[in-house]
Amino acid sequence: MIEEPYRWVEAIANRREYIETQLAAGSPIAAVGYLDGILFVTLGRARQKIFEIYDRIAMGAIGHPGDIERLRLAAIELASTEGFTRSAADVSLRRLAHYSLSPVMKTAFEQVYGPPYLARLLFAEIGSSPKEDLFLRIDYDGAIAADGLTAQPRQRFAVLSGTRQSAELMEKFLQKEHITDAVLSDAVNIALDAWSVGRLAMGENGTKEIPGRDVLRKHRGEQLANAAIEAAVLERDNKSAIRYRILADEEVRSGLQK
Amino acid sequence: MDKPPLVLDPNFSGASEDFPAVLRRKGLLQIVPEPTAAAGSHSFVPTESTTILAFKFAGGVLVAGDRRATAGNTVVYDRADKVLEIDRHSIMAIAGVPATAWEMARVLEHSFQYFRRTQLQEMSVDGKVRALSKLLRDNFGFVVQGVGVVVPIFATYDWNSKPEARLYFYDAMGAQFEVTDYAATGSGSPAVRGILYYENSWGDKKLKELNEDEAIAIALRALDTAAEADTSTGGVDRSGKIFPLIKIVSREGITTLPEEKIAAVFRQSVA
């Protein structure tokens, strides 16, 4: 047993370090608001990283596939039973994150003899107007960072990356470049550039400043040559209740700027 | 020594429950009592709804239902929706007890979506057809007690092996029957089957060759004929301007015909 409090603090610190190391290589994900909704973009070689949770909610994740899968299934089950017993309008990302996922992840993280969730999650929920969109990130320790719940100026984008440095640089890039009413193809370009910024900032020798446009496009070109673009949108004015749509790789590539 | 059986983590998606099982685990789906031999005399008369039909025509599958819901010989409601969209390409039309049928439709709708979201692939047409069959089978206890009979029609568009519209009808125990041309269930269905059989065999065109307007006309005539002899079928209410609900399943998805369109065909070819 850990009897002395400082041992517990130490154990938690070790655990945090271990998890950060495990997550450090995760390919970044960018979620950006655009003219008709919200776009999720990442680049990958094998595993799917962007998922549909419910009619108006999508999720991106990095971490251990087994843990992502458990959290994903839990989120889908909670949203589906809520949508079934009440209505689709009663399914809310805010409640899903604050009352269900975050406490579970915090508990798993702090019980030092049990396994934590090696996962970092990025959610977006599309509202009936851009004002009601919600972007929300849950970390492995249950910490929630949200854009849309407070009275602060809205960013209308969110990022997820393996390291803090990478995520911060992506945010800095998007604060400068993101246009809220861009058409889809422009949004894809900005999101892919943000991805490149995040990728270049990873690792110990990662860049600490936003790279120039030439460097970004060169890096992006190299990456696109041997990885698939994974992208999905939540569309606001979709006639169907289900707003989630996967974008095919070719559909995304056709709109790319050189 | 025998190898132990492979035990999968219940959270492993390949071993996960289907959506009705999730609901049952959470106590959100009623477990129907086992059928008992003698249901006894029951004075409770459930609300029922009647006469739905579907047939394949040139533009896909047309599914139509009258709007009347009855309990015994009382008309309960004259604007009931018996043709329900389950997903982008599937329609379930119901004859029988609406309370049970609407619940089934909700379970079914969520089952298909739950499967797609958890398993990251669309459920096959056979899987969907079977899912409805299982719900009907699970409901059989109510059927025997005389309070929950549902006899649905299921129409969908199959994107797999050979893209085409598919049409099924069921009996109350859950047996599914795929049909090539048409299906009708509910109390007014004998008249409707007669008309559809006649039209398909000796009409000007086979049902499959009809264009949209012709198909709507046949559907309206069939429902009007059913209503002529069956009090539980609403047909077309001429004074109240209540028209049957008609939806079409095609390659592009589901179209709900606007009332003006149905009214126009009605004035031209039926009234």
CATH topology of chain B: Glutamine Phosphoribosylpyrophosphate, subunit 1, domain 1
Extended strand count of chain A = 10
What shape does the CA trace of chain B take? globular
Rg of chain A, Cα atoms, Å: 18 Å
Secondary-structure arrangement, i.e. CATH architecture of chain B:
4-Layer Sandwich
Q: Quote the distance from N terminus to C terminus of chain A.
A: 59 Å
In the residues of chain A, how many domains can be counted? 1
Stretches of chain B where pLDDT is under 50 for at least 5 consecutive residues are none
Largest sheet of chain B: 5 strands, antiparallel
Mean pLDDT of chain A comes to: 92
Explain this structure:
The complex is a heterodimer of chains A (about 260) and B (about 270). Chain A has about 260 residues and is α+β, with helices and mostly antiparallel strands. Chain A has one domain (about 25-255): 4-Layer Sandwich (Glutamine Phosphoribosylpyrophosphate, subunit 1, domain 1), CATH 3.60.20. Chain A has seven helices and ten strands. Chain A has helices spanning about 5-25, 65-85, 95-110, 165-175, 185-200, 215-225, 250-255, and strands at about 30-35, 35-45, 50-55, 55-65, 120-125, 135-140, 145, 155-160, 230-235, 245. In chain A, a hairpin with a 5-residue loop joins β6 and β7 (about 145). The termini of chain A are far apart. With about 270 residues, chain B is α+β, with helices and mostly antiparallel strands. Chain B has a single domain (about 45-270), classed as Glutamine Phosphoribosylpyrophosphate, subunit 1, domain 1. Chain B is built from seven helices and 13 strands. In chain B, the strands form three sheets. In chain B, strands 11-2-3-12-13 form a five-stranded antiparallel sheet, with helices on one face. A five-stranded antiparallel sheet of chain B has the order 6-7-8-9-10. A three-stranded antiparallel sheet of chain B has the order 1-4-5, with no helix packed on it. In chain B, a hairpin with a 5-residue loop joins β9 and β10. The longest helix of chain B is centred in the middle third of the chain and has 22 residues, at about 100-120. Chain B starts with 18 loop residues before the first helix and ends with a helix. The interface of A and B includes residues 52, 53, 54, 69 and 72 of A.
